[in-house]
Amino acid sequence: MKDLTTKIIAHRGASKIAPENTMAAFELAYNLGAEGIETDVQLTKDNIPVLIHDETVSRTTSGNGYVKDFTYDQLAKLDAGSWFSSDFRDAKIITLDDFLTWIKPKDLYINIELKNNKIDYKNLEQIVYDKLKNHRLLERTTISTFSPKSVQRLAPYQDEVEIAFLTSKRNPYLVEYAKKLGANALHIKYRLLNQSLMKASQEQHMPVRVYTVNKYKHMMNCFLQDCDGIFTDVPYKALTYRKVYQFKKQL
Structural domain of residue 59, as residue ranges? Predict the structure, then answer.
């Protein structure tokens, strides 16, 4: 039987109070009670999967240039925290292996977003799949991507790991489209959420998770629609708001 509780998933960690995609953000999210962690993966010049959202390092580190043009050793020397606050000046870009080692003993859902819709990193799907398999984390992980071609490349693994098509584009047949690509989950921008989509997803037994949900009224609607999860920058607020929703529902 499906668990009807909408899971609270920390978007890039607790990214409103710590620099996104760093160990500090992940640790805070976990300690605050988040039920899952969402993070982003790019590939370095030496094919090391690292956790960073942007294709360049400019916004969130002390460096400049594309992730793909750095070796991991070069990336590891960058300051990935001072842009957010001087309190986090020791924060570093971490590898996917670092993250998986940290999260393995914790009771947390994992969402790995492949950042390959702008740069189609060669073999990224296989590299991430192999890392998850080696860490024995396939069964509690979703691999997501905005790239239809990437979903198709991941499709052969759909019996071993959940594959989500990420989208912000309207499509009246979105569930059918995602399934045809080879996805078995759907991650949507909040404005796409509606009753007909939820009905279609439930008929196809396709989990729906919604991004990026930070406002009270939007969270309440996600809870009402029985979404499988929400990605939020403020997991500590979302947990409180879910309690409020559950309390109101009992009245």
Answer: 7-250
